[in-house]
Write a structure and sequence with these properties.
InterPro entries: Ribosome_recyc_fac, Ribosome_recyc_fac_dom, RRF_sf. The chain is of the alpha+beta class. It folds into 2 domains: 105 residues, Ribosome-recycling factor (Topoisomerase I, Chain A, domain 4, Orthogonal Bundle), CATH 1.10.132; 68 residues, Gyrase A, domain 2. Helix content is 58%, strand content 15%. Strand 3 and strand 4 form a beta hairpin. Helix 1 packs antiparallel against helix 3, helix 1 packs parallel to helix 4 and helix 3 packs antiparallel against helix 4. The longest helix is centred in the C-terminal third of the chain and has 38 residues. The chain is elongated, with a radius of gyration of 22 Å.
């Protein structure tokens, strides 16, 4: 019967992988000293009477390490896109050039870099908590299965060990992603 429970573990592993992926998406929105199109992924624009993501009304490119270009397809939303970028908490000031926005990426101050590292740490900690909650859910489900005599006590212990290994792997991925992002942020 243990083989019937194996998919349960893969389901929890998938959830943990999604938590790590979510962290990487959060990190993409954190500004570093270099330009990245991912920096603008979270920006929502008030266009056509509703809030839409920036990439649905424009194409984003990075021609230089310290500049982002936004090519807006409809002239009518240029001011809305500019306003959305300016009002974001990224501290960017776009320059309008017809249908294009040129966004210079100013170098970060040492203080701002340290703040960004703290924010990245908070993101990472939130995902670690999410991973641990998934582990708790998995262990609870395994204990319920053991109580219902679906799996034996030995299988329970074996599967709990496997869940812990999966959890350790996910936590390690979070730590590695955080370390990489910290290095990226602190790089001058």
């Amino acid at each position: 019967m243990a083989t019937a429970e194996k998919p349960v573990l893969t389901r929890y592993k998938d959830r943990m992988d999604k938590a790590v992926l979510s962290l990487k998406e959060d990190f993409a929105g954190l500004r570093t000293g270099r330009a990245s199109s991912g920096l603008l992924d979270q920006i929502m624009v008030n266009a056509y009477g509703s809030m839409v993501q920036l990439n649905t009304v424009a194409s984003i490119s990075v021609p230089e390490p310290r500049q982002i270009n936004v090519n807006i397809w409809d002239k009518g939303v240029v001011s809305a896109v500019e306003k959305a970028i300016r009002n974001s908490d990224l501290g960017l000031n776009p320059v309008v050039e017809g249908n294009n926005l040129r966004i210079p990426i100013p170098p970060l101050t040492e203080e701002r870099r340290k703040d960004l590292v703290k924010i990245a740490g908070k993101y990472a900690e939130a995902q670690k908590v999410a991973v641990r909650n998934i582990r708790r859910d998995a262990n609870d489900d395994l204990k319920k299965a053991e109580k219902a005599s679906v799996i034996s006590e030995d299988e329970l212990k074996k599967m709990e060990t496997e869940v812990q290994k999966i959890t350790d792997g996910a936590i390690k991925q979070v730590d590695e992603a955080l370390k990489t992002k910290e290095q990226e942020i602190m790089q001058v």
